[in-house]
Amino acid sequence: MTTPPTDLALARQLRVHEFLTGRGWHLDGDSDPGRVWFADDVHARWHYPATYGGQHINDVADTTPVRLQCYFTFDNQGDEVFTVVPAGNLRGSGCAEHDTMERFFPFTADGAVDLAEIAALLDTLEPRARSLDPRALIECRYFGPCRSRARG
């Protein structure tokens, strides 16, 4: 059972939901952003369906490159934050260009997500996600970083 969200958390989630779905993103899981505290629900996240040119890729744990996605979570200090994960290989596998290092965004002083800052990042990450080739990412992951293969 998840913890009920505060009014502030609900308003924040709904604002983010409207922002992302307005950009063509989809909500994963069965959670309703107006009812469940997303930071407490590991399945509540948004993904960018145009990742990999919209190709469907079967999900194989620890192998399949991840889609561009966003979610609420907690940072190392236990504070709730908003997170963007670029499309690509799991963190630390493959080259730096294809890495999925999470980007954490603390809330503003009034407890909101800075959507202007997120929009600027997504303006870069969405076109990149659309253009990525999942096969190239898998080869990068299993046969060595792209840069080292190009030099060898």
Account of the protein in words:
- By secondary structure, the chain is α+β, with helices and mostly antiparallel strands.
- The chain has helices at about 5-20, 115-130, 135-145, 145-150; strands spanning about 25-30, 45, 70-75, 80-85, 105.
- The chain has a five-stranded antiparallel β-sheet with strand order 1-2-3-4-5, covered by helices on one side.
- A hairpin with a 5-residue loop joins β3 (about 70-75) and β4.
- The longest helix is centred in the C-terminal third of the chain and has 17 residues, at about 115-130.
- The model has no long low-confidence stretch (mean pLDDT about 85).
Low-pLDDT segments, ≥5 res: none
- Average pLDDT, rounded to a whole number, is 86
| Estimated radius of gyration | 16 Å
Largest sheet, in brief, is:
5 strands, antiparallel
Global morphology: elongated
- Strand runs, count: 5
Helix content: 25-40%
Side-by-side strand order of the widest sheet: 1-2-3-4-5
Give the SSE string.
Answer: HEEEEEHHH
Distance between the termini: 52 Å
Content of β-strand:
5-15%
The secondary-structure class comes to alpha+beta
- Our count of helices gives 4
